[in-house]
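RECORD TYPE: protein structure
NAME: non-specific serine/threonine protein kinase
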Amino acid sequence: MGCFGCFAPEADEGDEDHKPSKPDDSSGADARRKVAPDVSNGYAHSFTFKDLLVATGYFNEANFIGEGGFGKVYKGKINGQMVAVKQLAQDGVQGRNEFLVEVLMLTVLNHPNLVSLVGFCAQGDERLLVYEYMPFGSLESHLFDVPLGKKPLDWNTRVRIAVGVAEGLSYLHNVADPPVIYRDMKAANILLGEDFSPKLSDFGLAKVGPVGDRTHVSTRVMGTYGYCAPDYVEDL
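PREDICTED:
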């Protein structure tokens, strides 16, 4: 695991964190290749916008799998690997800083209960993130508004998901160097693999924790109301 103490997400208003340098908007060597880069070696690649157009069937509605504050998400295939492609909405509630934080965080974080970043596109005004594909979608879709006839998650599966999420958070808080404050914990951000193994996703609001002699960091309240701890928002 690489140390990312040399950079930190862009500071919240009133915080003292340093701003990270942005990824180069140029397409880069991989992105200039006419054939999409190999995505099987565990590293995040720089894709061209055309690579991702082709991978998703030109963002065909048949490949649409969800939408959040960042933008729409489509499934696709690159060199035989199923991926999920998330495209930043130009008028979305999240922006380029969240895109940058996500790339920086997931490039260096590595744990079975964190979603893997396959690559990204930062070409012109386009900002897209490419993740491993999680076939069972989000935990939210299995807990709320479950279609009639669909079996709810059994108790053992729920416990297994809860344990996996706890292990992912424990890694972020206690093992990652420096520690990471997730700040967007909710069912919609817990993705499920084929065996219902959970993975935390959406690190756009994450923040680097205390480093060195610092014992704490200041944060603005972030995330979705209703999922924030009451003591976190009680003074608002």
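COMMENT: Strands lie at 45-46, 64-67, 71-78, 81-88, 117-123, 126-132, 180-181, 190-192, 198-200, 207-208.
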